[in-house]
């Protein structure tokens, strides 16, 4: 960046231009979004989304859409803490859980309380906000890292206590009390009732989640533009400078943390009502990682980014339960990645041809040794998969196929990591050929068989790769570090 | 009260065993934090991988070899494998982010942890595996201390942990690399200007820290026998708590913190309720942060400008 330093004033003046030059997608979105005010965009979005139940009567599709909206709203809350204020909150899911359990306590036969939905929702928002305050106060006294680990612990403990507090001795009670329902959770929660209207179908809850999302976006948009929101972003950019400007940094942090917790609590309450029950396993680490993937993919601190992230992370895996479709997307993704990553563009088609030839040679050699007992993978009745399967070879015994897939996976990891370290274009090209062949082999023998684990693996890789190559996500503002 | 004193020796022994493992994990956490100011969330998963390496070495060697050699090989293989894994993690996930905003390596670490857990699940499924400790060390072997009994396995765990810590202490205090490591921990830039090869020191730190976690994994397997792919998550958290308890970045502190936490947890389980087993570490962590944030042996951290 040294060539940019023409003189401090000029350099500062060019800041916006530099930001835009580095992030074309964000610039496009930014320009588009400026044509209309935010509320107009939101109304358009809401109207488009609201037509979904008219287009399909498939409950599964509507349920997925509802999940996108719910997790989108939840991720917006996380975005306030992580994206705006720059605090790494790893216990966020626990607040979501607190909201859900609070809803369960206040509107089920578990304790026997059935409050009106409106009051319950306000109560759980306040309760989870208070929990956030309670946890934030001690951990925010120190460096930001402590917050990460304390909240991580809090999330873990929450889930474990909800599972194990089934026989708690309370002074004054003759026998141990079941406080949480344990692993079996709390069942038969009241549905949402507002003004005499009771939500009963998936479509009803879809609309509730949509309203939640739109309201949340409006609130957070205005929050971000407010004095408090600007203070948060100042805090994130440079805590020391913010403090020197007289900002009460500690109070700001606790406020951000509690705000996030309150939003999570509200979302949790609605989730519990929708599911009609709560279980400790609803609030595990997978959810946390998914939320982080959502906000990191979209770009920390970006509102439309959260929507896109939520759509990708929540909806895509559900749509891809179809193995055929998943395979197509996987190969397409791999080819697009190659096109993006390999610099002389003509390398990619050449590479694909080379992999195909390499595969044929491997197949020829291995099938020539019958004592190995390897054969082409069995056809599955889908045109392109049958082509790939006839081109790959694996042990004929299915158990051994799985083992070969595992060994291939380990080899793929080593080769894949190795490839990124090779600087020489041609050497990399040569190593890429077996790597890609191995990738196809591992996908067909192992990854496509274990769709749920594979999805989590990809999310893990996504987090690492995004942090390294595009820490601002798809739509986030590029931070130009001032040297 | 009578029950308390009757079970006290046994509880202390159990606590020390647990604490030895926590201390080994805490050391890696603390060293990495000292050098890089980075919370390595993947550390607990490195420990889990260590336990699995030990398991597979054991499965391969039990029918043919002498128990002592098997245990030694398990430890060596796990330490070497985990040390290598730690270096790979540093190279690929943390090094590119060395000058990024603080939050970036933390999220990357989260991704690494998640990746390792699921990669192990993909290859080995999520089921529990059981160490056949009884084939290596006869359960009847051991000595009585008061009302308690120190079995040979627990003695092995405590002794190996202490030996490893003494070696570490020697490495850090008396070798050039150890000296360089301490210099980098105090001020990375100044150390670099004095000619310290910072990258090399960081690689060394990751190697040693992860190797200790690997040893911790094998020792856990030997004592508690059950291992699975998510065991690292809780263990990592407790290791960190131990590190904070002792004073983060402080090596003797990490050891002390591990033992204190192990004993506290064992006592809590025995004398209060096993419901709160994992909550103890968390309560200890919050209390330390409230009362003595620099830990038992640490010095106060001042934020550098």
Helix/strand layout:
The complex is a heterodimer of chains A (483) and B (305).
Chain A: H1 8-13, H2 15-22, H3 24-35, H4 38-50, H5 52-55, H6 59-84, H7 92-106, E1 107-108, E2 113-114, H8 117-139, H9 144-164, E3 193-194, E4 197-198, H10 202-225, H11 227-237, H12 239-244, H13 249-275, H14 285-298, H15 303-319, H16 323-341, H17 347-368, E5 374-376, H18 383-391, E6 393-395, H19 398-421, H20 425-447, H21 451-469
Antiparallel strand pairs in A: 1-2, 3-4, 5-6
Chain B: H1 2-36, H2 43-61, H3 67-94, H4 103-124, E1 129-130, H5 133-136, E2 142-145, E3 148-151, H6 152-174, H7 176-186, H8 188-193, H9 198-224, E4 226-227, H10 231-246, H11 251-271, H12 277-291
Antiparallel strand pairs in B: 1-4, 2-3
Helix pairs in contact in B: 1-6, 1-7, 1-9, 1-10, 1-11, 2-3, 2-4, 2-9, 2-10, 3-9, 6-7, 6-9, 7-9, 10-11, 10-12, 11-12
Explain what the structure shows:
The complex is a heterodimer of chains A (about 475) and B (about 300). With about 475 residues, chain A is mostly helical. Helix content of chain A is about 70%, strand content about 5%. Chain A has 21 helices and 6 strands. In chain A, the strands form 3 sheets. In chain A, strands 1-2 form a two-stranded antiparallel ribbon. A two-stranded antiparallel sheet of chain A has the order 3-4. In chain A, helix 4 packs antiparallel against helix 10, helix 14 packs across helix 21 and helix 17 packs across helix 20. The relative contact order of chain A is 0.12. With about 300 residues, chain B is mainly alpha-helical. Chain B is built from 12 helices and 4 strands. Chain B has a two-stranded antiparallel ribbon. In chain B, strand 2 and strand 3 form a beta hairpin. At the A-B interface, helix 9, helix 14, helix 19 and helix 21 of A face helix 3, helix 4, helix 10 and helix 12 of B.
